[in-house]
Records
---
Amino acid sequence: MRRQTALIGWWLLALAAPASAADLEAQIRAVLAKPAIEGTRWGLRVEDKEGHVIASIAPDERFQPASNTKVFVTTAVFDAMARGPFPNMGNGVRIENDHGRQNIALIGRGDAMMKDTPDCEKDCLAALADAVAASGVRRVGDVIGDDSFMPFERWIISDRIRPGTRTQISALTINDNELTVLANPGDAVGAPGRAALEIAAPDMEIINQITTGAPDSRPEAMVEMIPGMRQIRLFGSLPLGGKQQRLDFDIDDPADYAAIRLAQLLRERGVKVTGHPRARHAPMGPVDLIPAPVAPAIQAKDLSTLTPPDLIEDLTITSKVSQNLHAHLFLKKLALTQGFSPTTPAGRIVLNQTIARAGLPAAAHDFYDGSGLSPDNRITPRAMVSYLHWVEAQPWAADWRKTLPIGGVDGTLGRRMKNPVLQGKVFAKTGTLLAANALAGYMIAASGRELTFAIYANDRPSGAPSVLPAMDEALALIAAAN
């Protein structure tokens, strides 16, 4: 009740916002300078549809945009779709002859939506296993997960991006390249805990180092996948009698894991696998590092090919929930629209071409990945608002706006802005890194005017509370005053 009263209090203050621009800016600065978040570096730009400035703080300083990067990637995809076909190919399965035995190859083509879950209804790995079994094949050698459609980049291009952030990029993606381990305490204090994969993968080894703690102890279980190995290590402690813990983590090699799962599905359908599941990658080569048009390779025919979901569906997921893997795959597929090899460097070239058409100066932005996880990405508030104005003039703008989170309603804004000033009236992309937050998009002000805005909080001191309440309070002041 106390928290609800506080929330009501600040939006009532917002409704009584000052009339003059100078008073408004003073109130905004006061909100952003609260002692608890002192030291945070703020940037803000708000304009109306005609480009008149409503509020502006450090508009030309460069900020980490975090997942605001996805604004540029998803709009570049919409722009490419308007200019011609955009690659949206489904994964497939084929039979390959190997010195007298038949191998099964699972071919990844950059589809981010393939699933391998009991409730899967479309774009399902199980459908490919069904096709192999229905073909009459009863005995196979190796099961190969082939992601060579995209040159193998183990991590996003930044040496400061590490596992645990959904950055395992592969042309053969399965279940968003995540695994889940179900962990339970043992039967007595000091006894080993119990753990199993939610989806069976017999070729994966679980190294279970979880112990059972006292009934009143805190659950502190962690999981990691050892790079280059099919080993999952669990460690920590779970309280005796405590609840089962779901531990989600990134798959180290998605193509290898997809091969493991397909082999298991084939066995369940009566197909004998005499060989081993394995991955097949295409290492980065000179032609991939220096983007240039490449001739398409001649491909063998699939035994069966999945139909991926519509691109708009994937783009909506990418923006609404801020899906890092999907965003970076879109960046790589942008390269294909100009005949380049689908790599990060080539995708960045196409992305920067779109940004240049929007008229942004090169010094106002830098992007090194598609998701916004790179700490080297930069944008100025003025440039972001200018870009959003350009987007609004494009024929695909209305469709793109539907993919944005809505304040207090859905996506990454679903739990924020639960007040009459902002709820249902903000359509914007969030961004979050360790010490950076961002929000950019559009909002409907109290008068019904539409405002375009970008607000950034960088360099938040360690130990400081979240800056999101201050960010939302500042936006409410602006909305109420206009």
---
Amino acid sequence: MSIRKKMLKACVLSAMMFCIPAVSMACTTILVGKDASVDGSWMVARAVDSSNGTENMEFIVHPKKTNQTGNFKAYDRDTFKMALPQTAMAYTGNPDLGNEKDGYGYSEAGFNELGVGESATETIYSSDNMLKVDPYLEDTGITENEMLDAVLPYAKSAKDGVTRLGHMIETMGSGEGFGAAFIDTEGIWYLENAGGHQWMAMKLPSDKVFVSANEGRLRTYDPADKENYMASPTVISFAEKNGLYNPKDGAFDFHKAYFEERKNDETYNYPRVWRLQHLINPSMTTTVADSGTTAAPVLITPSRKLSVEDLKALERDHYNGTEHDPYANANPNEPYRPISVMRCEEVHILTVRPDLPAAIGSVNYMEYGMADLGLFLPFYQGLTSVPDAYHAGETPLNEKAASWIYRKPQVLAMTNYNKYAPIVKKTYADYEAKVAKEQAEMEKQYLAVYKDNPIQAQAILQNFEDKTLTGGLQVAEELTHTLMAQILKDTESAYHFEGF
């Protein structure tokens, strides 16, 4: 079990002892097929929420490694054992707490040198009945902590990533419940595990959208359709043997067999699924309560094709314009958990445009902290380095770390959301629009020379990244000063004691 989830477990136990609300970790995942997107991109978006949001996040470019020996070293435990393959491809990752110095760990998303991407994990929970017969192996099983670093450097395709992770679940076991997405030019595969050793995966239909919010969402499994489904060999027989599935009840349902609905879902998980599905297709007539039943479809068709900008807006949502908006309504006791929360570490949107070379066709649009008040920046698969601030996360509350530079305006804006949040949003929207124009020009220049002069093409890409990522830090720091000045002025006005 990872450090963060051990902390969460301790928080839950404390809450039970002292009758205070428990802190939960969560994520919100959105998958978009290429025929459901405006430019033919496959897209994977996920918000990475933590127990309190104070972790420093880094961005690491891992070089290719050859002649590896020994075992994979997880940064928070030595009980996880995995022999390292001889060769590891170059890849990017975004861990916290400087894990690349002390071992691998807690990278949430990235691309490898082949343009294969991974986002892991969406936290989900198997049923109590399942865990009685096949419990999690918390000390030795694979968890979110290791998943990206143990799979992505060795995945030759999205499907190969699923195969590798599935084999690890079967042979090493799972340490917790999770969903993981893999993306490449051929599509998106999404895997969910159940208990210690069962799993299934679905290939996303190209014209559909899938959303998940801390629930096991996969249902249909067709073992004969190997092009679109994969699973552990005993996924059906195990459920039948242990009384989790009866063929007399109809076709096998992965969710029904291995998961269960909990009271907490009604306000914590269902509203997010319902909200996203209705924003993506407003003609839907399902209710919040339907999200835990077969009435809410696993896959939906969007009312219009989606863009990266649409996914940014979806991950930034907090029931905007409704009675359930906790920020605009200044209601921290709002029962519906919003998608965008303050304790979010980062949000990433992995995009793959199949008709472009991987260096510019695979892009990770990422922001640090709360997405509603965050700045999304493009991290291209072909970049070779990032400014120092993006890998300065060795200690918490490191003021030189990019994650904290971007976090400061968010903290300040939340002191009076309705007054200060618009300042943050406009500033970042202006910079994102500027970057989008420069992106288009950079890609045009790259494509003009990359076949005949790959070195020049690489320089064009890297110069763009250096300028864009450095510029983002400057914008955030200037924004912090602007907010500080405004808050100082407002505070002084409220507590103005004048003698004359």
